[in-house]
Amino acid sequence: MIAEIGHFALILALAVAMVQAAVPLVGASRGNARWMAVAGPASAAQMLFVGIAFAALTWAYVTSDFSVMNVAQNSHTDKPLLYKVSGVWGNHEGSLLLWITILAIFGLAVTLFGRNLPPSLKARALAVQAMITVGFLLFILLTSNPFHRLDPAPINGQGLNPMLQDPGLAFHPPFLYLGYVGFSMAFSFAIAALIEGRVDAAWARWVRPWTLAAWVFLTGGIVLGSWWAYYTLGWGGWWYWDPVENASFMPWLAGTALLHSAVVVEKRDSLKSWTILLAIVAFGFSLLGTFLVRSGVLTSVHAFATDPERGVFILALLVLAVGGSFTLYAVRAPSLKVGGLFAPLSREGSLLLNNVLMATGAATVLLGTLYPLFADALNLGKVSVGPPFFNAVFLPLMVPMVLAMAAGPMLSWKRGDLAGLLGRLKFAAAAAVAVAASVWILGGGSASPWWASVGLALAAWLIVGTLSDMADRIRLFRVSWGESASRLAALPRSAFGMTLAHCGLGLFIVGMTASSAWISESIQSQRIGETVTVAGYAMTLKAVEEVPGPNYTATRGTMEVTRDGKPYVVMYPEKRLYRQPPRPTTTAAIHSTIAGDLYIALGDADAKGGWVTRLYFNPCIPWLWMGAGLMVLGGLASLSDRRHRVGAPTRARAAAAAKA
Questions:
Q1: Engineered SS bond to 93: which of 86, 144, 218, 292, CB 3.0-4.6 Å?
Q2: Rounded to whole angstroms, how far apart are CA atoms 273 and 278?
Q3: What's the pLDDT band for 654 if we cut at 50, 70, 90?
Q4: 179-189 per-position pLDDT tens digit
Q5: Model confidence at 17: pLDDT above 50
Q6: Widest CA span of the chain, in angstroms?
Q7: 260 within 8 A of 379, measured Cβ to Cβ
Q8: Got the DSSP string for 182-215?
Q9: What number is the average pLDDT over the span 417-433?
């Protein structure tokens, strides 16, 4: 009965979404306040019905109701409770329901927290959001019903993909979808602004917190997925330019550009059309990522729920949403008022350069991801585009972007001072030169990759430049400590957020560069008692034994690690065989220090009594995770800024205040 209630709730949600998509939009065009006011109660009702449906499916998983086909195909009574719950979104139907639930959450959030929004803009934005919801509700009801019954019900289920039975993958999809769907809110505001024909500082102030929230969630989701791949897949790396990784990275790049572009609209009333275009592109990439992951057109260790036939429906949604929005953009964007002019050397100029490089990087990733699909469809043969292409084309684009990130915040709006900028950047330049020289000398000159010096120099440039900007804001060493502390306390939280995020990217670059340049690895068949040395660490395989788990049997190795003849650590890599479904997985043993990670993965036994082992020392990997965490923390700090919770004054109110 609960499953039927969930199904009926989705039907009611569709009816409400259709009303929300039509009535407020017509009301806004006619200036009818009552019709516009329908958007608020409709979004609340939609959230209620979608929440009932999501709760019903979750209940079916928790209680192991195998009369529901979705539960029978993706759960088992032996699964721990965490993975019963995460099984809700670990499949095609459940992931769509999660997507729709998050859409409803964001719509309700605008209703509750958007009191300062102009009624017409709010009504139009919620109507556009409802249109997106209508598309996905039709998709789930017509092709992907998560409440389909089985009669007779099986005694037990088929179980969840073992690779999904991991804490990293339990939380990775919700965070990723919060990011994907969060950009729908920026998209809805962009379309509403195009319909109204007005984009101004107030609009940018309203759209920024939603974009920032989506960016924070997407950053966290990508990092969780990367962390999962690092310790679960057993290959010692954290990023491989996998097509599904790229599918989440493209909206992140577009969303990052959108965040910076919206600042220019808010502060200088410039780059309006470009900002609207970025909002459309960011959500377009989110829909494209959903299509690539759920359609079956890509083969990836990350693509767990695929269906080529139903992927056509997602493609139709993608074409309708993106094609329709681009058509509207082409018609209405030329009529948008052009903002103020600015010199190339200015804060606007640096942000525009950031945008162009981000957009070019996203286009590069898109080309490398889709080209093999087009080549296969046109019978041009099987083509593989992997890390060599992306590293050679994408990474050089990021070098000038990082250079501009340190310089941009030090420039004035409209027109910058080159001499003053160079003076403020002297410490960053000195740190970059010192780091590059040190890496070159300590690395043995040409024995060390040249790009390692460049990468770490860029990181030093960005971190020291960002901290120099903060020091300049509080006049550090130029006034008393008390006055500097007062200036620091008076800074807006968005300034702290920017500092944390930029420094976080600097730490991320350190981890990325060092782990790529100086990784040490050894892959061999290792017998009990045999010792292998990697990066000065002697690793001795002491034992391999069978260990029972809650719903698997693990083959656990015991690896004693010594350094300079002294005991260092004992590590326990595992290879697990799940009972239902019967599939093997790898769980690496990792020992982290500030210098790097010792990483051990246990493979299969060989015919000679040995075990395949993969032994790594990954330098500075913890810096990578710390950097990503700082970026998320910076986003949260900026999101907490009071200016994001209070709408910018309208032109009428600003004019009235000036007159008074």
A1: 144
A2: 9
A3: very low
A4: 999 999 999 99
A5: yes
A6: 91
A7: no
A8: HHHHHHHHHHHHHHHT---HHHHHHHHHHHHHHH
A9: 91
Q: Which amino acid belongs to residue 486?
A: S
pLDDT of residue 309: 63
Q: What is the pTM of this model?
A: 0.91
- Backbone phi, psi, residue 443, to 5°: -85, 0
pLDDT digits (tens, 9 = 90+) for 614-632: 999 999 999 999 999 999 9
Please report, for residues 139, 248, 516, 520, 594, the alpha-carbon distance to residue 617 in angstroms, rounded to integers and kept in the order given.
47, 28, 11, 5, 12
Residues 6+ apart with CB under 8 A from 398: 357, 361
Cβ pair 4, 59 in contact under 8 A? no
Rg (CA), the chain: 27
Alpha-carbon distance of 162 to 156, in angstroms, equals 16
Q: Is 487 left (phi over 0), alpha (psi -120 to 50) or beta?
A: alpha
574: alpha, beta or left? (left if phi > 0; alpha if psi -120 to 50): beta
Name the H helices within 518-650.
621-639
Tell me the mean pLDDT in the region 541-570.
93
User: Which of 111, 61, 118 lies closest to 86, judged by CA?
Assistant: 61
Q: Residue 283 is encoded by which pair of tokens?
A: 């959500």
Identity of residue 435: V
Nearest to 627 by CA among 520, 521, 515, 519: 515
3-state secondary structure 23-56: HHHHHHHHCCHHHHHCHHHHHHHHHHHHHHHHHH
Token pair of 551 as six digits: 């719903």
Euclidean distance between CA atoms 322 and 325, whole angstroms: 5
Residue 270: pLDDT above 50? Answer: yes
